[in-house]
């Protein structure tokens, strides 16, 4: 498991991710203090996960990645790599951790891939539970996984057994957002067909993916007003976001000059596919969904997934965590006394 940290400050010319523009999030205290958000990316290697993450956050999170050969892949188990960047936009700070899972789907026994990922998610819950029960509750760092982009191959005819198994194993622990990778390899018709097929399979298998919240939920008046403002500023993306799931995206690390402007895109003999062009793919919709729903993703993580974990955990041990912490402290003190 590796963890790296770096600080990134974007100049105006580097473009915006967009989270600083969001009125409903900005007015809340937590955002003024700074946001902590953890995004996990899962999918077979080579589907373009790192490229998409770099495109999403306008940064190079994986500058020198080592790519293993086939023989090595057969032996490989999933690793967990967490990279943290601090992004600041117009005074709003985002501490973003991206958790990558290289090796997923590489090994012959795919069951093993889940274990490592489930364990990682559970460990973050466990850590939070421990911190929450400790004395210093004010400064808990929230490393829980708030969202998981699940990458689906564009080359199949829908979900693979591994996709179904993974999502079923994880949907009770994390907010899953399915994405179709490398959408530039599909014609519009193929894209539509694949999307429909995936949605059908998701419902057939009873997989629960992240649901966009209802704008008229039981929020207070102030929040409703903020949502209206937000909707207005993001129309038409927001209103139609639902119809684009699973998002069919493309990513690129290359800047290409098109009509005198530098854009992120992929250059083909017949033309340029632009990452941020909504007519070419759903990249912008995915990014809008993520930045406008960060707070909701955090709330669902807290109220649903974390609560599930907590109650299961308490049932298992039969003790409130506070008591366990006290017990652990007592044992430690005894051990220290013995050593002395
Ligand atoms: P990862 O293993 O899932 O992290 O995949 P990478 O991001 O390393 O990408 C693997 C290969 O796919 C690289 O050669 C990328 O240039 C290419 N790639 C990444 N995104 C796209 C995309 O949207 N469309 C196409 N056609 N290729 C892509």
From TrEMBL:
Location in the cell reads: Cell projection, Cilium membrane; Cleavage furrow; Cytoplasm, Cytoskeleton, Spindle; Midbody
Q: What is its main location?
A: membrane
Single GO molecular-function term?
Answer: GTP binding
Any idea where the Septin-type G domain is?
33-316
Q: Which PROSITE patterns match?
A: G_SEPTIN
Instruction: List the Pfam families.
Output: Septin (PF00735)
Family statement = Belongs to the TRAFAC class TrmE-Era-EngA-EngB-Septin-like GTPase superfamily. Septin GTPase family.
Q: How is this protein named in the record?
A: SEPT2 protein
Lineage, broadest ranks: Eukaryota, Metazoa, Chordata, Craniata, Vertebrata
The primary gene name is Sept2_1
